[in-house]
Here is the input.
Amino acid sequence: MVETINCPVCGEVNPIELVDCNKCGRLLRQTTSELDGVGELINSGQIPTEKKTSELEMALPAWLRGAREGDKDDETTKTSDDSSLDSLSSPPPQAKESAPTKAAPLDWLAGLDNDDDEDEEEAADWLVNIQDNLPIEIESEEEVPVGIPASEEPITATEAPRPSDEEEPPLQTGELPGWLSDLQGESADGNFEAMSDLLSQKSSAAPKDVIDEGGFEGDDNLDWLSKLSKEADAISSYEETPSVHPDSLSTTDPDSPDFKEADSLPDWMGDLRPAGEVSTNETSPSIPIDEFSAQLSGESDASPISSLAEESRPLITRDDLPDWLSSEKEASSEDKGQPEQTPIAASDLPDWMTESAEELPAEESVGESLTPSSDDLPDWIASNSSEDNPAERADQVDDFLTEDALEMEALTQEQASQKESVPSLDMAVDADENKISSAIKAELPDWISEMGQPATGSPPESTDEVSIPAFTEVEEPDLVASLPTVEGIDEEKETEDAPAPGTPLVEDNVFSSSTDENVDEIFGNETPDWLSSLDPTDEDLAEEEPDDIVPKVDGNLSGGELPGWVQAMRPVGTALSDPSAGSGESDNVTAESGPLAGLSGILPSGLDLGQINKPMAHSLKLNVSESQQSSATILEGLLASESKPGSFKPQTKYSSIPVVRWLIAALLFLIVGSSLLSQSHMTPSPNIVVPEIRDTIEIINQLPEAGSALLVFDYEAAFSGEMHAVAAPLIDHLMLRGEKLVILSTLPTGPALAEHFLVETQSSHNYQRNDEYLNLGYLPGGPSGILSFITSPRIAITGKVDGTSVWDFPPLASVATLSDFSVVIVMTADVEKGRAWVEQSTIPLGETGSPPLLMAVSAQAEPILYPYYASGQVDGLVSGLSGGATYERLQGQSGLGRKYWDSYSVGLLLAEILIAVGAMVNLLAALKVRQARNKDEG
Amino acid sequence: MPDFSPELISGLIAFLLTVFVLSYLINDNFLFRAATYIFVGVSAGYVAAVAWHQVLAPQLLQPILSGSGDEKIRAYIALVLVFLLLLKAIPPLSKLGTPSMAFMVGVGAAIAIGGAVTGTLFPQTLAAINIFEFKVFEGIVMLLGTVSTLIYFQFSARRDDDGQYRRNPIFNFIAFIGRVFIAITFGVLFAGVYSAALTALIERIDFISTFTSTLKTLWLP
Here is the structure.
């Protein structure tokens, strides 16, 4: 069977001999050889070999390699699978590779640098559709914004952020970061339209492509913003640091080769471009939106716009203006000879601007010109046209458009220069807010004007750029409906107030329409921080309130209010939860005490903690009840008693001298010694004939002559004195009968004691060793030895004496078994020894004709061994000195028994007396104690 | 100059050892301990000599060296068992001495049980039965003593109403009788021990007096 190996990358089955996969070409066996040399394994402590990362390309997994390749190749990725607002909340990741111009793996950033592909770009619907139902011709978005330096080109998503040549100020409030402003792509017109439609009112059958698509295409979403920025930049020349500009305002990169001047502005703005405009590449200052609004509304003296117009070269010709604007100019062009404007197609207007024009087709095409009618004009424009000199107003419009385009471009470049800062719509709008003329701003819808107001911080006062919010989530019908009419703009412009700082940009109910779901899909569930942080708190904005570009929008939107889902994401805090409190107040809070004393702009202690007072003083005393007190007293008494020594009676000391012992000993020695030494025979020998002694005498008398008697000496040396006195008369009687003696012992010291016994007590008989008596020695094994000897003596005893077997000597010549002995005499002082002999010999010796069993025992063994005599197992028993003395008296002998009898008697008497005396003493003592106890108890 | 015969020397040693032992009357002292140590040592040595001369040599080595075939077989078996029994002293190899120990314990137990049954239990029981035929009073006394002694060792009691634990009054009376018998038995045993000890004392006093007289005779002109 051929061994195969599966490719770890593609899973293809390859022969085991191969190194690379046949299908994908990857290594079949992942080893570390590439890291530290081919065929060498990494040892501990080994310094890894440096390798070029490019050499390790093949070692990467396919998925990673594909991603890397995709990063390199996907420059023109336009579509993104899952784009959400989250992508907008974070700046585009920096390109890790050395190809800064390549698109990042993130889909939402893919295609952001496609700024040079679209010939036609849709203008921001919100800007295009400023006038209700007024189609606006949106210029191509590919116009290169004028006056934007190359370093300030909008940054695409695939590009690495380029460091700005000049030190960029921190992101101002209201400014959109560069990446946001550069959120422009080569989106199709549909995407742009979809975004526009999202922001537009729901009046018309606006295509909801973007909404339906369910995603906020990152590369296309803010095209309208970027386009606007470009258009604005194209309009005005702005040399200041560009702020964050929505991408929709500047849709094309002015530095791109495909950048066309005509494409940088929306169509309607492009038509408004005055003749003789210079190159769009020139930087041109932009005007604030509020100023722009003011200019359009005619409130202001149009000094900023006019001044800018004087300073800069107008970039927007009349031909570039939208129709609705061009119609105004036509009225004045007669006086000034301005070229006619290109009408703006109604289809180019965003839906929110075509509120009342539901019949207007929501076309995705851009660049179509729209012929604005008077009804379509925004109020601020219409008011100007109706009240003021049309010619003047036309000039003002021209200037506004020009400068607005310049501002847009500047904003776009500003966004491009932004790096990692998370854009906040608040800041972007805030920055833009400053740039919009107050007059224009007053006419702007609330939601637009609010977008331009920063949430935190104060926008730079010097910023003049037009800042337009990147996008807003608007409820279509409300927004469209809220757009003021041309006739009513005068009523609203005065009352238009800048959104309060901290107010949500868009109310929650704005998104409560049926399009919320789609909106969520587009923007995602997470709002970018720059959007959520939109909170115009700029004081300058307050001053520029009347300069809203977009007229106030009635509806659910309230100035500066963030939607609920945005607010939910904000930090919890009383100071922050209340948008109405406004961060603007924090700017005014000055610390009066504490470590921040004297500092302003601190966070208010809105938590209203109140004064920190000292805690209440509590008494240190414990509330103790009576029962607790009593318990404590008892416990205290117990503890005190523990330390006190208890009274006790002194124990009687015992003397070290044993007086009683010495006295008794002395008495014994005296009495016994004296009686022994005196040999007075004051006590007669015992003449009571006990049966056991009588039987013993009779048995000995009945023994055959010249027989062999077995003598067992099983007593210790300490009992030899007594045993001599007990057994001496018996052995003497036996020897007088002429019996031969065979000595045996189950104790090692037995044979020696036997010899000593014979020497000490039987020396008169002059028995010869091995002739008349034979000492068999020690019988080992205890009871088993006894049984062995009783069963077969010749096997149990095999000793020899001088080379001769003991069984050959005369005492054992006729003995073969235990029955051949004439008598068996067991002499012992130990109860166990005696019992063993009795138990083992009961059966053999119980038979008829067996030799008798006699025992000579000590006085201490007699109580235990006497029942054996009483039962008949022992034929005769001589016990103690009394038995020996009795045996002697019966034999008419005088031996140790008689010698010791007097002392023995006196000793026994003394013992009896002492016992009696002791008993009496104990009795009296007990009686005394009882009496004392009775007295105590009584 | 007295002739220091072996008997004199041995007597003198015995006298001294006796005095040493009797010095315990004063208190535990060195002399008494010396005497006991000498006794133990001499006894151990004598036992070892006896075991060799009368057991190992004639019953183990001699059959192996010059015994017949059967004697040799028995000797070899015994030798192996002895060797295994000696391994009991080595903890790692102690398990090898288990067979020898088991053989010894088994044989000893069998002999002891057989002897106890056949030599004590049955004969004593028969003797107790027979005694009633001839000596009724003694039988009754013996029966009473036996039963009362057994009841005395029955300590079960019942809780009374006052919470005190008391035995049955009848049982209490019988237990009292049994206690009497037990006391008498202990008295008899004590008497026997005292008698034996007294006799030993008398013998020793006699030895001392005798030896003293001998010395007196030898040393004194």
User: Anything to note?
Assistant: The first strand of chain B starts at residue 158 and ends at 159.
